[in-house]
Amino acid sequence: MRNRIALYAEPRKTIITALSFTLISIFLMLILILSINKDAIRLNSLLQSDYDYSVTMQDTVRKDDYYQFNAGIEFTLSADANTSLNTDVVMQSKDSLYTDMVSWNAEPLSTNGVAVSENVAKSNNLHIGDKLYSKHIVNGESCEYTIEQFLPEAVSIKATNGMNHSDGIIIMGYDERYIENITHSSIVFTKDSINDLSAIGSPENIVYRDDEIITSLRSIIPYLAILSVVSIVTTVAFTILLTKSVSSNFKRLIMLGFDRKKLNTAFYRLIRGTGSISIIASIALSGIVFLFVNYNAVKLLILLLIPFIESITLLIASNISNKRLWRK
To answer: Which sign, positive or negative, has the C-alpha torsion 215, 220, 222, 228?
Structure first.
């Protein structure tokens, strides 16, 4: 400890610089995760699923399929509400088997039961046993439905190039009145060959899961690129500000003949040490992000991208700053 070289950076400026860096890092992470939240949910849902493609059929294939109705079905939080929930609504088939091939599949529901994706439940403070309301398309009556299950986070039935803007999924239990009176089709999630499905009916609107994943990534990448650049610029600015605060004393110690290795150690301890503390603090405090959005693995990886980039940039920028001090 006695052999350590102190560069005597002004404490007040160092604290303000480090605190500003921490707050900016947290702000960037918050902006990033809120900007790509829907796409991250969609991507996580696709990665957790195992089907090869989805396809529209005229009738059920009795496995991992749901009825879709040409007439829109809407749900509200109360019987007299004027605003409906912004969700994709599908209905279970009567005799279909639902497997884990689709991440948001539900167990069989009763006729007046529904399953709601977790993100919709959280944003509307819904619980198991709560009621939702929907105007029955066949007779026009307002019907009461009970939330029987929560589904993993999901924002839509499938992703396409013209992605819809729904906030989640609601699955209805089989209702024979809809099937007998309303025009409908089935959306099937499968790994079977097209030839096998063609023997049952006429498959249309094929959407491959790999294409859906690519579509989701294309929506996320621009935000990652922009905020990564901002993160790099912020880290470089932080390094420059701290370097300026000790540059005069550093050059004075060079002129006095202090050991190069010890000087560099002192410099990196200040710049990288202070930066690392700020980055670790921002990671620790970034948990507040999940007060606004649900947690999943994709969101966590995306969230950690900012501190990762900051750490790499800090190492490179501090190395360049150190070399420039020695040149001067």
So the answer is: negative
